[in-house]
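Example 3.2
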Amino acid sequence: MADIAVMGGGLCGMASALLLARDGHFVTVLERDPEPPPSTVEEAWERWNRRGVAQFRLAHIYLARFARLLEVELPDVTSAVEAAGGWRHNFVDDLPPTIPDRVRRPGDERFEIITARRSTMEHVMAGIVAREPRVSLRRGTAVAGLVRGAPAVSGVPHVVGVRTDAGETIRADLAVDAMGRRSPLPRLLEALGGTPPYEQAEESGFAYYGRHFHHRGGMPAFLAPALTALGSISVLTLPADNDTWSVTLYASAADAPTRRFKDPKVFERVVRACPLHAHWLDGEPVSEMVSMVSGADRRRNYVMDGVPVATEVLSVGAV
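Structure, written as tokens:
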């Protein structure tokens, strides 16, 4: 059994902690945001302050591969998401009318998804983590550095723990980076005397403008694909949990006129002008307009010429 430090308490960090703990290890999760999850799913949506997750109230969907992994590795999470109002669906059932053979075939069940708002998914998983005996989740604790030990490979830093922003040293046999695409891990490795990973980055160039809705009568029907390109913009309609869903307009970040989509009146006029999507606005708004200009997509390689940039540290959830 090992002592493991997981840096980051989002979905990837909590899932990693559960998997490691159930393999018999003792896991300490360090999450920078201090606020604990509220008591209910709706309170989590309305007031949980997750400053470290820029897209916390933007549109989310968890695809079929995620659902299959949950069912196999963390079935209690799957059950808890469903119990919290998560949405199960198979998009094979939404084939366009131009495809006449609409009968499911053996194996199509692998395309079934289970999804929810990001706040709901985090709320559910946080509750399970809190009850896991081998996991300690410490909120309001940021990682300031790594602790170096005697190298196992000549010239390669060997990580034996992490240092918090309060100056505390937490010894660990393995440090897991789950801090997302903006993770400071490359900088922390460089400060340790190691070689930073090779990084490729490219701006996606998109901007997102969206809002969530609710209707007790259930989800709107799909009259068009969930993601529909309409010239220079796209419309994304995603069901979530508890009869909520999101409507999002995508455009080029360089397209100045589309920045007016942040205005809810302009947003509504544009969506209403799309005959196969207008009915997705027929609900009560449960959020303000939210927007984000997507940053760079990054790919980091932590192994250079077959040699790791450091030992006993690894990154999950972002590449």
